[in-house]
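User: Sequence in, structure out. Go.
Assistant: Echoing your sequence, followed by the structure tokens.
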Amino acid sequence: MSFKSSSIATILGAVAISVGAPAWASLVDQGVTYTLFESTLSPTEDQFTLDITGINGPSDTEGGRFGVNSFAFTEPTPGSVAGGSSTGFTFMTGGLNAAGCNGTGNFYCFKANTAPTAPPLAANSALSFTFDVTLNSNSAGGFANYNPDFKIQWLGTNNHYDLVSETLTPTPVPLPPSLPLLLGAIAALGFIGRRKSGRKFA
């Protein structure tokens, strides 16, 4: 491959990555930050990653957390979720309360296969959970405009942690400011290539 072709391929790859950036949503509750990333796998299946930061840090108002025992999200529409999967967790329909996944409500829930135990996580720890959610094939609208309510159950030195119960609204990640420069570089390389090609046959 020529230098020109490889350069164009590299630039196009960067553009593709930028355009294909996932959606995200973030909230802070009791001093812990929850960030939700979303990417589409198919018209009826999306993959989500829940990143949690600031665990047991100075801003964590509860602290002493061993880990996450379960977490839940509302369905896009009632009865629309057909299934889900996440490493180390079991998928269940319904939401959760202080005791964990409870099988009621228009939620889906992931329960840890092994409940987290002592000792508490280190100060300012971070956790990340990736999970796939599949909708019924006849679910109108799919994940469009999906604004899930979020709940999570922590285990730790406290008898009961406050349940997070807030909405995470995914929004598109804006394209980087450098994108116009990348597109300009593609145009310039194409122009140079045409000029060189024209000279050969002059």
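User: And one key feature?
Assistant: Helices lie at 3-19, 179-200.
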